[in-house]
Design brief:
2 strands, 75% helix, mainly alpha, single chain, 9 helices
């Protein structure tokens, strides 16, 4: 029995799942998402900033957590406390996670492309198409599972989620901390829902690509 299709299936399934999740997260750290989501999350009321001031500060934070060469965040904003040492330390941790995820997504994308190209050159797309379908269903199931857990007990889910990436005590702040007022709970609700929708779209695309690949593979000559 030829094990190559099975290996391709497994590699493609893992790689495509990582790509789908990574891309859906990456959209949330794009400038336009912060520009739209922060003011709509009632942060204007919590901060007392003008809309332009709010968006400027939110963009500083977004840039800080996505670029290692970002300038330091201000310790004072409009005469009120800005980002203290604990806030900055947490945002550095966030940046490390985001940059790691970015590289992991890139590696998974390259792996997916190489395996697909090698399979296509051999006329053996069965493992690739099967892996794409598996990735699609896995991604979709993962989103649904997280949605159910978050709906049933959001507080426990929130704590557990942060516990995966950050040390205890490094991600909790007073309610009046600027980082909390700029990114209130409503912002994270919007971010979570946006991620879920995007991930489900990628999930559906993977399943569709897998079905199409299966049909195409039937017409390819095998080496």
């Amino acid at each position: 029995m030829n094990a190559a299709p099975n290996r391709r299936h497994a590699i493609v399934a893992v790689a495509a799942t990582l790509v789908a999740i990574g891309l859906s997260v990456s959209v949330l750290v794009m400038p336009w998402f912060t520009f739209v989501a922060v003011p709509s999350a009632d942060a204007l009321r919590f901060t007392g900033f003008s809309e332009r001031e709010l968006r400027d500060v939110a963009e500083e934070v977004r840039y800080f957590v996505t670029h290692r060469d970002a300038p330091d965040l201000p310790a004072e904003v409009n005469g009120q406390p800005g980002f203290d040492e604990s806030s900055v330390s947490h945002l550095v941790d966030v940046r490390n996670v985001i940059i790691f995820a970015r590289w992991l997504t890139l590696l998974a994308t390259i792996t997916l492309g190489v395996v697909a190209a090698e399979a296509l050159s051999r006329g053996e797309l069965r493992g690739v198409s099967g892996g794409l379908r598996t990735a699609g269903w896995t991604t979709g199931g993962f989103v649904v599972l997280l949605g159910l857990v978050g709906t049933l007990d959001f507080d426990s889910f929130f704590v557990a989620f942060h516990g995966v990436f950050f040390k205890d005590g490094t991600w909790t702040f007073p309610y009046d901390a600027l980082i909390i007022r700029i990114f209130p709970e409503a912002f994270w609700t919007t971010a979570a829902l946006s991620w879920a929708v995007l991930a489900l779209v990628f999930s559906a695309a993977l399943v569709a690509a897998g079905i199409l690949g299966k049909r195409v593979s039937k017409g390819l000559p095998s080496n």
